[in-house]
Amino acid sequence: MALPSLVDVNKPDGKHFTVCGDVHGQLNGLPSEDNPYLFNGDFLVRGSFSVEVILTLFAFKCMSPSAIHLSCGNHESKSMNKIYGFEGEVRSKLSDKFVELFAEVFCYLPLAHVINEKVFVVHGGLFSTDGVKLSDIRAIDRFCEPPEEGIFC
Predict the structure, then answer these.
(1) Out of 20, 22, 44, 56, which could bridge 86 as a Cys pair, Cβ 3.0 to 4.6 Å?
(2) pLDDT of residue 145
């Protein structure tokens, strides 16, 4: 089941909530029910363990869906995966089939989150268009590779 393009997250008062950006294949710290994490895109490349990091994040999401939130960054696309080496890492550690599976799964990741109706969290590598409204983000059909121009590029 796909999450919406814009996910509303409620953080109870007095509870921790960690927003993490650009881990680029290097993971420090772990999410829990007491300290949920929002990983704000760019999980891949630049580190030697991008496959292990993304599989760990997916495992956490399956085990404890409310303890981890994942959003798409500009590195979660076929072109960036090819340019920056994630595709090659996947081929060497897994197989060609996994390259395609990762590309498909990345299209299902939400683009942004709003925490407690107050904090807007989106990866800096998205939205080349100015004046984007939350309703515009909610309406994006993201089940494709990012286009060259427009709100989702």
Answers:
(1) 44
(2) 67
